[in-house]
Specification:
heterodimer; A: 249 residues; mainly alpha; Cytochrome Bc1 Complex, Chain D, domain 2; two-stranded antiparallel sheet; 11 helices; 2 strands; B: 530 residues; Cytochrome Bc1 Complex, Chain C; two-stranded antiparallel ribbon; 10 strands; 63% helix
Chain lengths: 249, 530
């Protein structure tokens, strides 16, 4: 079966992967680093090189670690939808097992950040003060690109910082750990695993407690508020004044 | 029956008592007969007034609970993600207003939404006055008074925006600090004076609070008073129509009809504002966190009315020159100069136009914008110029929402600011002239009725229907100007000012469509008859 996948994947068209995927999943419960290597060669090597050494089209993956693979593959950023200023998100193209197998293969090439332990994702261990600390860390380290409410924002040259609403905690953690795309790396010396967990808990709080003051207009701040008052506030009142001064014809 | 009829009623006695002591009847008689023309655009000023009442009432409520102090406290209220965080007393009390004071969040949102509406309505009202030429003699002074009100409203808005001491307001102050420091030589000292030391210091919130709740509102109320008195003295303008002349005002008197309409409009405005404030959040300041000079959030914008200034800063290329170790920040100075000039020109525009046209007459008829193409074109270009700067303040959101490169957005807006303003001027003028020509044609030859008639000879013609008198009046009642001739003054000299003025009136009135003369109408009518 895997052989079939490899044969089919000689062309790296993503569609072939998607087709092959159901064929692999039921049979291969435990995938190994070798399976990961084959998957990598079939789906990633055209840009990242046969030995993950990188080409002109994509960076070297030696030493990026399993955390990076899990983030990029399982958020649907890799394989890349198309070459652009930044990888777009789409539905993940692999199962978790396949992604883990590729992660194992990449991690075997050279040491790199590993997928986080369950305990660092368990936000039930964070108390109220911890959530508050997480908010503070978020405002200092993250808000300048991702916006205080996690609504996202613009970066240079057509790149952007994505929104952070309803993101799987493991992907938030891995993003901080590996610094995907334009994001800086926040390693454990910079933001400790406990602090990362607090940031995740804060984001979770925002997800679970929607806007208390009414509709949030996209959490975009004064721009959407200004548009709203001009269009609906003033627009509505002008309509009323037209009505008040109208005469029956 | 007869006995009760002769005895004065309680109301009569009460009003007589009052009148004998205050002579209020004169005032009531004058004001009660003040006439309001029936046109929706005359109601814009009322939206301003009523939203101001909403601001005053909700603002008074807020002052009961807001603590204008930058003393450091540790938050201990209901909002979990800020528990124990160090912040200023001002921010903590704003949070308490939102979470722990009953009705506080509604009042805060009402205050903020009403402020946005207040300034938006001022903008629209000013555009109405500008484009209908309602600022002409005798209303030039009221235009200036109104313009000062607009600037005061901006100041009110900005000081209010800065009070809660959240991250957004602190970022706004940081920009002001940067702009002040960009002024050569004195900038740093002014900044120290303003913030009571190094930015942000701990003086700015109490200082802005005093301005926001005392000085500025007092000035706003005083200027609204002057504006209203002048409005009564000058009377309303009105659009031309049969029976509506330069010497009368046709419409509803305050008592009783207009008072009823205006009274209900007050409740509608207030109701709309409360409805918005209770369903849409504005400035969720708990998300922003306390101000701290290090973090800056993506998507940090001022409220909409300061957007044009933020946009001007964003559009200006980052030019700087260094002279003897002094840095001259053109990226700050040029926008300040351009905006200052823009504001002054708008404020004194009635006097500029009067000097150019040499028109000393009183005008009580509101002009249709097309009938003064150059002014309309200037206005449209000004609106465009302002709107582009305004849009530039949201360049980052334009980029993310339309998937564009934020640099390209900036370049495009820069081009639109400079080239677009000229294009809009030219286009508007041409469109206004075209509309005038169309009016003229309709007046002389009637409108196209859509009825096609075949003549005995086989020729097809469309029958043109003449306008009725009522409609025709609207089209023919306007004044046209001709350029001022260059003439020597009393000393027989032609001064440079005369030349300048002649050139400017040529610019204003060289391209024009003159109104239809009675003779032309007569000829056209005879033509129609056979």
């Amino acid at each position: 079966m895997i052989g079939l996948v490899v044969a089919g994947g000689a062309s790296v068209a993503v569609s072939s992967v998607a087709n092959a995927e159901p064929a692999v999943a039921p049979h291969a419960q435990q995938l190994t680093a070798e399976d990961g290597e084959l998957l990598f060669r079939a789906n990633c090597a055209s840009c990242h090189g046969l030995e993950a050494e990188g080409t002109e089209a994509g960076p070297s993956l030696i030493g990026v670690g399993a955390a990076s693979v899990d983030f990029q593959v399982m958020t649907g950023r890799m394989p890349m939808a198309f070459q652009g200023p930044q990888a777009e998100q789409r539905d993940p193209q692999f199962t978790q097992e396949q992604s883990d197998a590729m992660g194992e293969y990449i991690a075997a090439l050279a040491p790199g950040p590993d997928v986080p332990d369950e305990q660092w994702l368990d936000i039930s261990q964070v108390d109220d003060e911890g959530i508050a600390r997480g908010g503070e860390l978020f405002r200092i380290n993250c808000a300048m690109c991702h916006n205080v409410a996690g609504a996202g924002g613009a970066l240079t040259e057509g790149k952007w910082a994505p929104h952070l609403r309803d993101i799987d905690p493991v992907h938030v953690y891995e993003a901080m750990l590996t610094g995907p795309q334009n994001m800086p790396v926040f390693n454990d010396a910079n933001i400790s695993p406990e602090q990362k967990r607090e940031i995740i808990a804060y984001l979770n709080y925002l997800d679970e407690n929607p806007s208390v003051g009414g509709f949030d207009l996209g959490s975009l701040g004064p721009v959407s508020e200004g548009l709203f008052i001009w269009i609906f506030g003033l627009g509505g009142l002008v309509a009323v004044s037209v009505w008040l001064t109208s005469r029956p014809n | 029956m007869t006995a009760t009829a002769t005895r004065p009623s309680l109301t009569a006695k009460a009003s007589n008592y009052l009148d004998e002591r205050t002579s209020i009847s004169t005032l009531v008689a004058t004001l009660g007969r003040k006439v309001f023309p029936d046109h929706w655009s005359f109601m814009l000023g009322e939206i301003i007034l009523y939203s101001f009442v909403a601001i005053l009432l909700s603002g008074t409520f807020l002052t009961f609970f807001f603590e204008p102090s930058m003393t450091e406290v540790h938050y201990d209220g209901s909002y979990v993600p800020l528990k124990g965080v160090a912040m200023s007393a001002a921010y903590a009390s704003a949070l308490d207003l939102s979470f722990d004071v009953r009705g506080g969040l509604l009042m805060r949102q009402l205050h903020h939404w009403a402020a946005l509406l207040f300034i938006a309505a001022i903008g629209l009202h000013m555009l109405r006055v500008f484009f209908t030429g309602a600022f002409r003699k005798p209303r030039e002074i009221n235009w200036v008074v109104g313009f000062i009100l607009f600037i005061l409203a901006l100041a009110e808005g900005f000081t209010g925006y800065s009070l809660p001491d959240d991250l957004l307001s602190g970022n706004g102050l940081a920009i002001i600090n940067g702009m002040v420091k960009g002024i050569p030589i004195v900038g740093t000292w002014i900044s120290y004076l303003l913030f009571g030391g190094v930015f942000p210091g701990d003086d700015i919130v109490p200082r802005l609070f005093v301005l926001h709740i005392m000085l500025l509102p007092a000035l706003v109320i005083a200027f609204i008073g002057i504006h209203m008195v002048l409005l009564v003295v000058n009377k309303h303008t009105q659009f031309a129509g049969p029976g509506k002349t330069n010497d009368n005002v046709v419409g509803a008197p305050i008592m009783p009809l207009f008072a009823a309409k205006a009274g209900s409009f007050f409740f509608i405005v207030f109701g709309v504002l409360v409805a918005i404030a209770s369903t849409f959040t504005i400035l969720p300041l708990w998300e922003y966190g306390p101000y701290d000079p290090s973090p800056v959030s993506a998507g940090t914008q001022p409220d909409w009315y300061i957007g044009f200034a933020d946009g001007a800063l964003r559009l200006m290329p980052g030019w700087e020159t260094e002279i003897f170790n002094w840095t001259i920040s053109w990226n700050i100075l040029v926008p300040i100069a351009v905006l200052g000039l823009f504001i002054v020109i708008v404020m004194i525009y009635p006097f500029i136009e009067q000097w150019i046209t040499g028109d000393e007459r009183e005008h009580h008829i509101a002009e249709r914008p097309r009938n003064n193409p150059t002014r309309t074109a200037i206005g449209a270009a000004g609106v465009w110029f302002y709107a582009i700067m305004w849009a530039a303040a949201s360049s980052d959101l334009i980029a993310t929402h339309f998937r564009l490169n934020v640099f390209h957005v900036t370049y495009a807006l820069q081009a639109m600011l400079i080239v677009g303003t000229v294009v809009v001027y030219w286009l508007t003028k041409r469109i206004a002239l075209g509309l005038q020509k169309k009016d003229r044609e309709i007046l002389l030859h009637g409108y196209e009725s859509g009825r096609i008639v075949r003549r005995p000879g086989g020729e097809y013609i469309e029958v043109h229907q003449p306008l009725d008198e009522y409609e025709a009046w609207k089209l023919k009642a306007y004044e046209s100007y001709a350029p001022v001739m260059v003439r020597p003054n009393a000393k027989g000299r032609i001064t440079p000012a005369t030349h300048l003025r002649a050139a400017l009136t040529r610019w204003f009135f060289e391209d024009r469509v003159s109104p239809v003369t009675p003779r032309e109408l007569e000829i056209a009518k005879r033509h129609d008859d056979h």
